[in-house]
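Researcher: Structure for this, please.
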Amino acid sequence: MNKQLLAAGLSAACVAAAAQSSVTVGGTIDLAARQVRNGSLGSIKSEVSGANSTSKLVLRGVEDLGGGVSAGFFLDATILADTGAAGATAQPGPFWDRRSTVSLADVRLGELRAGRDWVPTHLVWSGFDPFFTLGIAGANTFRSFAASRALGQAFGTAGEATTANPTLRVSNALEYFLPAGLAGVYGQLIVTAAEGGTTATGGTRGQGFRLGWARGPWNIAAAQFITRNASGNHAFTDQSYGASYDFGVVKLDVAQRRWLFGVDRTVNTQVGAVIPVGAGAIKLTYVRADQTGATAASSANDATLLGAGYQYNLSRRTALYAHLSRVANQGAATFAILGGPAVSATPSAPNYFGGQKSTAYEFGLRHDF
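Model: Predicted structure, C-alpha cell format:
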C-alpha cells in the first residue's frame, strides 16, 4: 500500500513539474511576388520573403518558479523563405538574428531580460505603422544607409549590408520591462555593451527607454536609444513617438522617427489608417523623410512615400494580401523601394537615381504556424 502511495505521489509530482514548464515552436512563412520600377533604370520582378510578416522560426520556453515568478528564453531566426536560407541578409551573421534572450519575470515587479533584442525605438515605430515596417509600403523604406543623411554619416553607406544595426536590434543587451496591470502604462529600460567591438561587428554601446500608455482605443508611446561606437566621434540619437486611436470603423495613427548625428538628421513622419472590411482590412500610409545637413543641397534631399494595401484573412493563421507603393524623391535624394534595379547617389554613375520615382506592387500569401 505504501509503495502504491509513493508511486502515485511521484507520478503526481512529475505531472505537476511538467505542467509548470513549456516549450513551444512556431513561426511564419510569407512569400510574395513583387515588381519594383526605379524610374529610368527599369524594373525587376522577383519572389520575396516577409512582405506582410517576417518569415521566421521561433523557439521559446517558460518555467513557472512559483509565487508569480517565471524564467524563460526566446529564440527568433529570420527565414528567407524564397530560397530556404537562414538570416535576413547574405552576410554571415547570427542564426538567431531577430532575438535570443533569457529572462526572469515577476508578475508584480516586472521582467529582467538579457541577450539580443529589438531596440525600443523600433518597437514604437513599427507599432504605429499599418504595415509594421514590412513590404513595399513599410515605414522603414527610408531606413537606407546610402540615402539617409544621418544614417550614412553615422555608420557609413556600407552599413546596410551588415548584420548589426542599432536602428533595429542590438546584441549584448540588458533590459528591464514594467509589469502588466499599471492602468495601461508600459515601458522598458535598455543598456548595451560594445565589448570592444564596432557596430559592424555587433558591438554597440548604448542606452535607451520606451514609455507608453494603451487603454481603450488609445495608444501613445515614445522611445529613445543613443549609441556610441568606434565609427564616429558623435553620439547617434534615435527617437520615435507615436499615437493612435481606434474609432472602430477606422484606426488612425501618426508617428515620427528622428535620426540625429552631429549636424545631420533625417526626420521621418508617418500618418496611417487601417479600415476593417469584411474578413480583412484596407491599409493606407503616408511617410515623409525630411533631411538636414551641412549644406542647403543636402538639406533639399527629401522624399515621400504613399502606400496602400489589402489583407484578406482566410483564417486566424492564413492571409492573402496585396500592396502598392510609390516613393518620390526631391533634390538629389536616392531613396528606393527594395527589390528594384541598383541605384547610385553618384551623378556620374550609370545608375544614378537622384530625384526619380520608385514604384512597386506585390501580392502574397502568409501562414503562421
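Researcher: Any notable elements?
Model: Residues 92 and 163 are 8 Å apart (CA to CA). The first strand starts at residue 21 and ends at 38.
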